[in-house]
Specification:
The chain is α/β, with parallel strands linked by helices and 306 residues long. Helices cover 35% and strands 19% of the residues. It has eight helices and ten strands. It has a ten-stranded mixed beta sheet with strand order 3-2-1-4-5-10-9-6-7-8, with helices on both faces.
């Protein structure tokens, strides 16, 4: 099994590395070594050198920063990498997401892992430009860590404690639950199925009042509960009785995602939208909002793997 970690030399790469290690200890082992590939992408030099050697100085600075990032990553891994073969790869490309996608495809990676953008709240997935691109084009399952993510204190080598699979009621979302159910059975990890929704504060004009909004929300909750129950029946023994079914709603996506409670080292699983290419990750509008407000790492699976 190979996990490719995109290590941003100009940001917090520890979160991505910690999540990469968590996935390496969570996803089913394949034959051969478990490899963690830490990939750094730096821009190539200018095609026309400047007379003042500004290009050369910039390249020297970028290379030095990449050296520091790799050294910091190696020191941070320490005992976390126990049982893993660690490789460092440096790519010189203008497009970071395209370079990482190509490397993940070339290495037949089990997953591609990214950290959050440094511009955003702590403890929440913050989607930067690289993650945004890959959330609509990654050829392999894509995982994104919340900003400043760390494995639970004192348990850096423990696999994910639970998988929560997002379920919208669609047939494709049902396929994602089946994928997660098979995975949790194989790795003996708890599964939870959750439906997330947000009530709009401006859905109706003031003269109608808020009662209609509450009624619509309750109808949606009842529909989701019914859809989850039907899914459990259709999946038979694959969805055991101990699998928790949750329907959550709130005034905002953050309130909704925060209301369900999360375990240490938990993962949120989402399936790709049917609107995208079969062999690529692609997200719909609500899935994108769920990811952007998730307090735990997210794992998005391409449609052809569901």
């Amino acid at each position: 099994m190979t996990i490719v970690v995109g290590a941003n030399p100009f940001g917090d790469l520890h979160g991505a590395i910690d999540l990469g290690v968590t996935l390496a200890h969570t996803l089913p082992e394949a034959t051969g070594a478990n490899v963690l590939v830490v990939a750094t992408v730096i821009p190539p030099g200018w095609t026309v050198p400047s007379m003042a050697r500004v290009d050369g100085e910039l390249q020297d600075w970028v290379q030095a920063r990449a050296d520091e990032a790799e050294a910091a990553a190696l020191a941070f891994l320490g005992e976390r990498a126990q049982g893993l073969t660690v490789e460092f790869v440096r790519l010189s490309e203008r497009s970071t997401p395209r370079a990482l996608a190509a490397l993940a495809e070339e290495r037949d990676a089990t997953a591609l892992v990214l950290g959050s953008s440094p511009d955003g709240p702590q403890g929440r997935v913050v989607v930067g430009s690289t993650a945004d691109y890959l959330l609509h084009s990654s050829p392999v399952p894509l995982a994104v860590a919340p900003r400043s993510y760390r494995c639970a204190p004192g348990t850096p080598d423990v696999a994910a404690r639970r998988l929560t699979c997002s379920f919208s009621g669609s047939s494709l979302a049902g396929s994602a639950v089946r994928w997660a159910a098979r995975l949790t059975r194989e790795i003996d990890v708890q599964l939870r199925v959750a439906s997330f929704g947000v009530r709009s504060a401006t859905m109706y004009p003031p003269e109608i009042g808020t009662d209609i909004e509450s009624e619509v929300t309750e109808q949606w909750r009842a529909q989701m509960a019914e859809a989850q129950s039907a899914l459990r029946s259709s999946m038979g023994d694959l969805l055991d009785d101990d699998v928790e079914l949750v329907v959550a709603s709130g005034a905002s996506w953050w309130e909704t995602l925060s209301s369900v409670g999360w375990l240490p080292n938990e993962l949120l699983v989402l399936g790709s939208s049917s609107a995208g290419a079969l062999r690529r990750v692609f997200l719909g509008t609500n899935a994108t909002k769920i990811i952007r407000h998730s307090p735990v790492p997210v794992l998005v699976v391409p449609r052809d793997e569901l």
